[in-house]
Amino acid sequence: MNSLKEFKKITQTFIRSKFSEYYIKNKNTILAPSSIENREFGFFLFAENIVIRHKTFQKILELRNFITNIVPSDVYHSAAYYNDPEAPMDKKGWKGSDLIFDIDADHIETECKKKHDTWSCIDCKISGLGKPPQYCPKCGGFKFNQNSWMCSHCLEKAKEEILKLIDLIHLDFGINLENIRVNFSGHRGYHLHIDSQQVRNLDTEDRKEIVDYIVGTGLDTNLLDIWEASGKIKSIGGLSPNDPGWRGRLAKRIIRIFSDADKETLKSIGLKPQAIDSILSLQTYNSNTNQDTSWRMIKGTGKHTWNILIQRAIALESVGIDTVVTTDIHRLIRVAGTLNGKTGLKAMKIEIEELPEFNPFKQAVAFDGYETIHIEEAPRFMLGDQEYGPYNNVNEKLPRSAALLLLCKRRAHPVMN
Amino acid sequence: MISERDKARYPFTTEAADYVKKLRIEIDDLITDPYKPILKRAEERIRQALLKPDDLAPQEQDPSIEILSFPTAIMLMACIDNENVKRRYAVAESKGFSKKLKDESLEKVIGIAQGTFDWNIKSKGQNLRETYEIFLHFIDYIKNIKNMNDLKWKLTNRYLKDGYVEITKNEAARLIEEEVQSKILEKTKRKIEPPKALKEILETIKQITMEKPVFDTFDTPSGIKVENMPPCIKKLFDTLSAGGRLSHLGRFTLTSFLVNAGATEEDVMNFFKSASDFDENKTKYQIEHISGRKGGKTKYKPPKCDTLKTHGLCFSPDEICNRIAHPLTYYRLKIKALKK
């Protein structure tokens, strides 16, 4: 009987050989970041805990050959530009950094996480569903192993967020679409790069200010001018759908909340019956014109109601980015056209106009052929056009991409002939 | 066009700097009789800035003396080995300039912003709301709001479209103040070996700096290690250590954190002494109230992460931050991890 450690090693060797075949065939699809000679590259190897950092390449060809020879599990480049990318961190000579955003399903609340994600306490080994708690309920420990699953619902949510982000970056920050690059990470999210001279020299604090804007942090509702118009009617004066920035977004969103509203939703966000009735009695709201002011004066809406609506609108308009990634000016980020060692899927560039239709479970599939594996445990999942699982302790012959997903996720091991 | 008088009023402008460069005055010249008024005016600038900043006002009778006294004062400050004094000088001078700028025409303010600081400005564009007068590119905007504590400055609360932020003329003057302040700080930071010719005046200036107590060394209160502080607290700590200013909530957060992390009142008091706007009685009152010794007798805790986020005080959250909801929890986790 093989020990767990041996299984792990066999699985790694197997995945590595498939990655190697992939890179020999597809190395030309690996994309170089701009100014490749000023970037630091980092590699995770299949052998555990081995990381190669501070590597540099003069040409994309060198990078492609290196990847094909070494066959790493994951490949990263620095968002930053350095004078000497090979030097130790404090001697590299920072020359600027792309502005990057990471949207990861890990940071977006979805109901299905309680079904497909698990955690276990490193100290006492107890486990549970969903996100790990702050402290282990049994031993009080605070270190956990997390086992997440990529599901189409979570990724669809992540896509909604990246589309919202593009909208903000383009319309509010005035960044040209040509300077915005979107990549699928090959796992649970999307990366957005702004590669433009304009943003390169922003420091951490500057980036924090941009992050706060994108998340809607620090929005001061006192500046929004909620006032009592006459009698019991309170109106909101400081917002108009034509306003630039957050005010316009909030106004449009509140109008949308009104026009999409049903009794239950309005009740669930804490509105009082009178306000709900008057919102529902006004059937149509027009967000495209400034003429429509009916939404501003809703019977039974006081300051309290307006605050609830504004908080709701902020929550819906806020973009779920991983804020740490954007403020870190030395961050490493996945290279487009390489494989993600956690899934065996491609990290890849997506044209912005194709993004709405992008399906990672089809377009990021990297392998063809079949593979027989032993699956310990896996939930139901989609890949390509097919649905798989759930599995429990069985041998299965699966399309190679599905087999690799389970192997990379450590839910399976190869079957030796 | 920038007039002679403008150069005297705003000696930080490119035009004033060019004027000075053309004169090719050497340091040794400054102690000769014809140039002595410059040195005298520079000394006066420093005295006012450090001791009575409200008295700072341009002397416009002789513009050339006024223009030259500014770089001279900066050079003198560069010879003083005290970061806090330099900061106090920079704050006072730049405040004086922005007070004047607010009375200038829109065209002049824009002219200085573009000409000296290279701001990317679209003025009087279409769709500009009535009260606003300038479209400023967001990059120039965020570079200059770092020290602003009022929420109205947060980009989130501004009209932002196509990369431009709408601001008023007075706001532009306030942002120019920040530009000038960092320019002065940068210039006074260059270490200069005090020239022999200026030995005497530098002695006088050292005397001036001693007239207000300044603390330039920092002890961490009660063995609270900076590396165990959450990033938000560390940021507040660093700001104050560097002689910067904190908002009321920022000050409250830092004080209550230190008190709850076990710092003695005396330690916290000593720590705050080095703040650039230190007021002994006020600080003492605050510390005593927060620690629960006076007033309601309740010991105050720092605000929750959510509150800090809302007020823009949450800074660079790290991985530990993702798992906690209160800055004190961060500290306890760190201490606990160290004990393991």
3D structure, described in words:
The complex is a heterodimer of chains A (417) and B (340). Chain A has helices at 4-26, 60-70, 113-116, 152-171, 197-200, 204-215, 245-259, 263-268, 273-281, 303-317, 323-327, 360-363, 400-408, and strands spanning 41-44, 51-55, 74-78, 80-82, 94-97, 99-104, 118-121, 127-129, 144-147, 180-184, 189-194, 226-230, 233-236, 332-334, 348-350, 370-378, 381-383, 386-388, 391-399, 412-414. Chain A has 417 residues and is of the alpha+beta class. Chain A folds into four domains: 4-105 and 153-209 and 323-366, DNA primase, PRIM domain (Alpha-Beta Complex), CATH 3.90.920; 113-147; 221-317, no CATH class; 370-417, Ribosomal Protein L9, domain 1 (3-Layer(aba) Sandwich), CATH 3.40.5. In chain A, the strands form seven sheets. Chain A has a four-stranded antiparallel β-sheet with strand order 2-1-3-14, with no helix packed on it. In chain A, strand 1 and strand 2 (51-55) form a beta hairpin. In chain A, helix 7 crosses helix 10 (303-317). The model of chain B is unreliable at 213-219 (pLDDT under 50). The N and C termini of chain B lie far apart (68 Å). Chain B is mainly alpha-helical. Chain B folds into three domains: 4-100 and 183-210, no CATH class; 103-177, no CATH class; 221-339, no CATH class. Chain B is built from 15 helices and four strands. Chain A binds chain B through residues 132, 134, 142, 171-175, 198-199, 202, 204-206, 208-210, 212-213, 216-220, 223, 243-247, 323-324, 327, and chain B through 127, 138-139, 142-143, 145-146, 151-152, 154-164, 166, 309-312, 314-319, 323-325, 329, 333, 336.
